[in-house]
Amino acid sequence: FYGKLKPYFPPDRVHIDNKYAGIILPYEEKIRDDSVKIKYEWNLDRFLAYVSTWSGYVHYMEKYPDRDILFDLRNDLFKAMKTNNQNELMKLYFETFILLGRKTK
Question: Could you give the number of structural domains in the chain?
Answer without folding.
Answer: 1
